[in-house]
Amino acid sequence: MMRVFLAIPLPETVRDQLSIVAQMLPVPRRVPPENLHLTLTFLGDASARDLEALHSALEGVQVPSFPIALRGLDVFGRDKPKSVHATIAPQPALTRLAGKVETAARRAGIEVAARKFVPHVTLARFRPAEVDVPRLERAIIDLAGVSAGPFDVTGFTLYQSHLGDGPPVYEVLAEYELRS
Ligand code: ATP
Ligand code: MG
To answer: Which stretches in the chain have pLDDT values below 70?
Structure first.
């Protein structure tokens, strides 16, 4: 089985901007710049056969490209924060793409957890005990004005995530283009 997910890769300029923002956060570990991405659907463990069916289904996803922009920061975990992310300015085309990709995964027989799509780019992950929460909250308020983009989303990628000690390695398994 392979640990896989579908995500939008970010242009290098945007990753550079976000990694500068991440440097300003009082957190113990940041996502390495090359790993910054926008997850569309987390698929979890999938077999080679699942992935073949998924590949066929995804090749049928016909969506025009669209712009997105990053605006401000937020945390997951509220008063016990586990991660900090950049939020995405509302973009219905992005929500539609995530919906189509999720439907394609289900059609391919992959079980996808039913949860609301909250588009974000994770900048740092940690355990709540590892951060000074009031200090982190202040930093997030101070950085409320950060932005990156807009840039055109021209495709999405199927990644295999290799977990181990240290940051994961995301391997590109397949790339899907949006219509320009
Ligand atoms: P690590 O788990 O070592 O901190 P990571 O979260 O980047 O690294 P994965 O856990 O393989 O690596 O996750 C890959 C992508 O899928 C990340 O964007 C992650 O936020 C997202 N993801 C992981 N698990 C889930 C889940 N249960 N539901 C939704 N998204 C998830
Ligand atoms: Mg994870």
So the answer is: none
DSSP 71: E
Residue nearest to atom 16 of ligand 1 (CA): 42
- Residue 57 Cα, ligand 1 centroid: separation in angstroms? 23
pLDDT in tens, 112-157: 999 999 999 999 999 999 999 999 999 999 999 999 999 999 999 9
Tokens representing 106 are 């289900």
Residue ranges around ligand 1 (CB below 6 Å): 3, 5, 39, 42, 122, 125, 161, 163, 168
Q: Whole-angstrom Cα distance, residue 34 to residue 48?
A: 26
Q: Please, where are the H alpha helices in the chain?
A: 12-23, 48-59, 92-107, 133-142
- Determine which residue's CA is closest to atom 17 belonging to ligand 1: 39
